[in-house]
Amino acid sequence: GRVLAGHSSGAQSALRAARLVPERLRGVVLAGPTLAPGARRALPPLRRVVATLAREELPELPAVIPSYLRSGGLDLMRLIRSIMRDQPEDATGDLVRPVLVMIGERDRVAPPSWAQHLAHLSDAPYLDLPGAHNTCFTFPRNTNAALQQTITKWAAV
User: Fold this and answer.
1) Which whole-number Å values give the CA distances from 67 to 64, 109, 121, 156, in the listed order?
2) How much is the pTM?
3) Is the pLDDT confidence value at 121 over 70?
């Protein structure tokens, strides 16, 4: 079986896909899942994004800010609206495959307490990695090691 992984809004897609084709998957990885219920109003996501950007590694900012600016704002607003409507807590408990939830310890978009709650709902392990929301990209070695360890365990079952 395959492992399906999604980061941030990609975790939304991973959850939806996993529910559609569970028999084709070995496991699901949710990295930096979307917003906690209390943050799904207009101002909290903006504050969380700003707070998280302030905690990202400096080399990461030039990689993400140009894409936000190129979007002209409309695509970014659509994405944020989609994230605000997403309710991963409703989908996580239904997953039958092994799940791993991992988060950057300084993430304010999807804070560690929220990720821990999602992990608890799916009886999944939870990993706190260095960095903020984009920890998968800013700390790829840590992310890779965590994924290899988890997938090796899943394959042994």
Assistant:
1) 6, 18, 34, 40
2) 0.76
3) yes
